[in-house]
Amino acid sequence: MDHTIWLWDPVARREVTRYTGHPTERITQLCAYRPSDDRFGTAAGDDLLVTAGHDGVVLLLDPATGEGVHVMGESAGQVQGMCLFRAGGVDLLATVGLDAVVRIWDIAGGTLKFALTGHDGWIHAVCPVTVGGQVLVASGGDDGIIRLWDPLGGQLVRSMKPRDSVHTAAIEMSGGGTIYALREVRSRPEPWLAAGGDLPGVWLWDPATGRAGGWVGWEGALDNHPRCGWVRTLATYPTETGPHLLVAGYDDAVKLFTAHGQPGFTGF
């Protein structure tokens, strides 16, 4: 691990530049942030990079120079997940990691708003999800419980975990239920929350009620070979017929499913 960030031109398929953001530790998280003003010394409309990693530091980096422009702060452990979102007219950042804490940052102000506790074990995944017009933050990790948080008030809104014996048995047989990936699926009238990890396929939740709404990539057989394998990342892909879910994990494939669980093209 060389702790280096590469910047690429995707059209020309060439490297533009490279720089070191965290000189002593591995970088695990990276996303773009566009400030609405020049408070960080960059022109309004220019993107910054938000980086985090094993040193627990959240750093804002100017991609034009490769220089750090602001250190947001430090966690007590490695950062495993990060997401940007907007709530209440404010740009916020959520980070999670090995200290079992969900941190909510005011990214424009560069300050920590909340350090939310409740998970029992490492947290690997975090994402925003909109419920009834309210933006919440979903988190998941080693304890297999999905928690929904109010990022403006700092309160736990809901915890979600399967209650019936069939799903519980399938989770235990497939690895114990550690959650490594969360993603909002923006279907109508309300979104689903997709969860993947050491689970049988991908778990779809209704975040408004806290009820499991279905499974993607699992046929119902209680065995160790779901069609999705152990899932490590999720993404959504909009189409004219509705959102599709991209799933990737330990089965060496990328699979595409509709929001209702029907498989699409899987030849990646």
Q: Can you describe this structure?
A:
The chain has 268 residues and is mostly beta strands. The protein has a domain at 161-267. The chain is 4% helix and 52% strand. The chain contains one helix and 21 strands. A hairpin with a 4-residue loop joins strand 5 (57-62) and strand 6. The relative contact order is 0.09. Residues 220-227 have low confidence and may be disordered.
Oligomeric form? single chain
As laid out across the biggest beta sheet, the strand order is 3-4-5-6
- Low-confidence runs: 220-227
Overall geometry: globular
| Termini separation | 27 Å
Structural class: mainly beta
Largest sheet: 4 strands, antiparallel
User: Would you count the extended β strands for me?
Assistant: 21
Beta-strand share of residues: over 45%
For the residues shown, what is the average pLDDT? 81
State the share of residues found in helices, binned by percent: under 10%
Total count of helical runs of at least 4 residues: 1
List the helices and strands and how they pair.
Elements lengths: L3 E6 L4 E7 L6 E7 L14 E6 L3 E6 L4 E8 L4 E9 L2 E8 L3 E6 L4 E7 L5 E9 L2 E8 L4 E5 L4 E6 L4 H10 L4 E7 L6 E6 L4 E5 L4 E6 L14 E7 L6 E6 L4 E5 L10
Give a brief outline of the structure:
This protein is mainly β and 268 residues long.
